[in-house]
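sanity check this record:

:::
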Amino acid sequence: MGASTLYQVGDALPDAGGALAFARQLMARFGSGAAAGAEFALNDIATVEQFHYARRHFGHGTFMGSEHYLHDPGYREFWQTLARWGFEEKYEGLWAETDLQPQLAALWPLPEGVQFQLAKGSTPSTFPFSATYDWSETDIDAAVAAAGPLTADIAWFSPLRGLPAPKLCGVQLCLNGVWAVQCSEPAPGVHTVYLSIGTRNSDELAERWLHETGLDVGEGLAGW
C-alpha cells in the first residue's frame, strides 16, 4: 500500500465542473486547519481524441517504452514506424521526443508498453499552467476549463477534521480518469473524487471515521 489510502466518494461524475465543485465541497466540509495548497498534473495521452486536443495547447511530447516489451512484434513495429517517419530514438525502443505532428495520430491506440507524455515546458504551449508549484483555486479553475478530454490529477493536501494524523490526508480529483494503484488511469468522460487518508491513521480508525461521515465510499486503494 502507499503512504495514504484513497476512497472514492459517490459515483463517477460526467461533468468536470461538477466534479471540481464536489471535490471542493469535501474540502470545505472535512478539511481542517491550513491546507498545503493544490497540485495539478496532466497524465499520459491515451486516446487519439486526447492527442488531437493536446495539439491545441502543446507543441512537443515524448514516447516512452519499457524493456519488458522489446521483443513484442507490435511494440517493435511501433518504434520502427517512428524511425521511418524520421523521429530519432534517444534509447532504442525506449524513448523518442517528437513534435505533435498530425501524422502521429495514426499511432493510436498505442501498443502495450508505450506511453506518450506532453512536454510541459515546450514551446509553443498555451495550456494555463500555474507559475508556481502550489496552484491557486483560480489556477485550478483555468486548468480544468482548458483540460477538455485530457486526463489530469488534482490533489488538495489538508488535515481532515477528526483524524489525528494529518500527513497525506486530503482530496483527490481525477479528470477523465479513475484511481488505480498509486496513480490514476485514463477513463474518458469519467471524473472521480476521492478522500485520501494517510496510513499513519490505523485502518480501524479510518473505517470508523468514514462511517461517521455518512458518505458512500468505495474500497480503499493504494494512494499518494
